[in-house]
Amino acid sequence: MSSDAEIATVTRVQPAKVSYGPVAVARVRAEIYSFFREKSSLVFTLIFPVFLLIIFGALFGNSSDVAPGVGYINYLVPGMIAAGLMTTSFQNLAITIPIERDSGLLKRLRGTPMPKSAYFLGKVILVLILSLISTILMLVVALIFYDVSLPATVTKWLVFLAVLLLGVAACTLVGIAFSSIPKTGRGAPAMVTPIALLLQFISGVFLPFTQLPDWLQTIGALFPLKWMAQGLRYVFLPDAAKAAEAAHSFELDRVFLLLGAWAVVGLVLCVLTFRWRTKTDG
């Protein structure tokens, strides 16, 4: 019969230590491969916003001035770039994560030695890549078909980079947090897509923000898309475009303040609400 001392010396199997770098790289590669393998995701995330820009540009062009010397298409391009960033971050994650949770992928990943942060790093890197591709596609179409000018000063390029990074950070974190709301993966697109479209209409993307009723302007100003579009209008439009802004100013200080605040709120909500399992799994 074994003594207590012998029992105490039984070797316990320790989980193998995982090197973070290779795991993180593998997770990023998996995210990129998974996205580009799904043609529907590729079309609706990257191609559809470009189609909208082309359609609205063909319908309205620069037939009317939004502000002195600023045609409709000039006003539309910054808003569509902002909408594309929201699509690659908020809309993309708020739809795909519930699907992954419903399929059991998140549950399986949580049971592996992979650090949890590697999963989120993969999502963030994917969003950054998609945001860059989306922005380049928009700019190429705008430059070729609508003679839109690129920023002419270093300051405007720096503001462009800051708005892009802050906006994508805010929308990414909010998208991850929102992913816990849909009850099923199948129901996520039906819940998220209308919200994304509504935000575009009330945030000054498809039509000048000041043409909205005051109460819709108030609601639109609560969300990051409005401030992303406004910051990008500073980048791509001349000073005369201030006349089409509610405050007759691009309010860059408020742009950065609100986007930063949404990033903080999104991070807090992610920590408090993110779920690796479906509600039926407990």
Written account of the structure:
- With 282 residues, the protein is an all-alpha fold.
- The protein has one domain.
- The chain is built from 11 helices and 2 strands, in the order H-H-H-E-E-H-H-H-H-H-H-H-H.
- Strands 1-2 form a two-stranded antiparallel ribbon.
- Strand 1 and strand 2 form a beta hairpin.
- Helix 7 runs antiparallel to helix 10.
- The longest helix is centred in the first third of the chain and has 32 residues.
- The protein is elongated.
- The N terminus is likely disordered.
Structure described in brief:
The chain is mainly α and 282 residues long. The protein is built from eleven helices and two strands; from the N terminus they run H-H-H-E-E-H-H-H-H-H-H-H-H.
